Amino acid sequence: MTDLRKRPESDRMDQALLECDLLRLEDRQIEKFHFWHDSLIMLKQAFDNSQPSTISQWWWDRRNGVQWYTFWVAVWVLILTILFGLIQSIEGALQVYKAYHPN
Amino acid sequence: MTRLDTVPKPAVIHDEARQEIIQNLWPACDSATLRYDDLDLEPYFCYYVRQCHDALIDGGRHVLARTHQDIVDVARKMEEDEPRDAIREVLRARLVTRGRRSEEDILDASMDLAARLHLMIHITNSDLFISRQLPVRWSSGTLQRCLENHFSIPQVLGNDHIKLEPGFTAVTLERIAGIQIKPTDNLADHLRLIDREDKIVAVFHHASFLKRQTR
After folding, report:
1. B178–A54: do the CB atoms touch at under 8 Å?
2. Cα–Cα distances in angstroms (integers) from residue A74 to residues A54, A63, A69, A77, in the given order
3. Is the ipTM of this complex over 0.90?
4. Per-residue pLDDT tens over the stretch B37-68
5. Which ranges in B120-186 belong to alpha helices (H)?
6. Cβ contacts (< 8 Å) between B159 and chain A: which residues?
7. CB-based contact B192:B202 (threshold 8 Å)
8. Global pTM?
């Protein structure tokens, strides 16, 4: 769905949707919805109860800002640690090799 | 009006016919505000053609409407708040062959088809097609009353602590919650979770159709 314009012709969504603005705070008050009230609440519950389960969802879920930064900084630190550890191990191995077989 | 005398075949509805259909189904209050450039009515006409195609199966044995004009006429009667029985009698007078066993079904199907095209709500009394769409049944009285009954169901759920954040959009629903958006042509299905795992939500996407209604 994510790109409205890229759907196949048979499944095309109304392009006028692109011109709909996002609702402002006063229009987003749940009490203002008469017919869609219950459907919106159920959808919001489904949304709130969902936990990200794929890497892509982990990346996009920024509802909890602090947690997001902590998680991804930790991931980055892990990657760097492994990377540098690997480089050091290889260099160490090369040094040992050179020590035993001086040309 | 000759453009409305064409048969709604699944092929193509030309631009002039489209304009006539739109103007006749939903006459605008002020003709000066009729602007079509900001409206994308292609999805509506895909829906129109699909509905006609489905209704005309079996050589059109199940429905009375044969041209766009037939549909517009029934829609007009609905707008004038005529009860279903009165519209039925008007249609009965148009039947070529009377006394068929399926006469009532044919008249019902014709009225339901016109209502569906007029409102984009799945109004039907027939179980001819298996559909996952939520049907609205209009069996008697005026269409207005039937819709009022359907759309004024009282709110059941409490809304304490429910806040709709700015980040609560279709895009984030898909990206974060893994809830897929499925476009629907049935206004009664809007925002309904349609699968067992609550991972697919139907969204009525015809913004142009809705905009046109308010003009």
Report:
1. yes
2. 17, 18, 8, 5
3. no
4. 678 888 898 898 888 888 887 767 777 777 78
5. 143-151, 170-175
6. 30-31, 37, 41
7. yes
8. 0.81
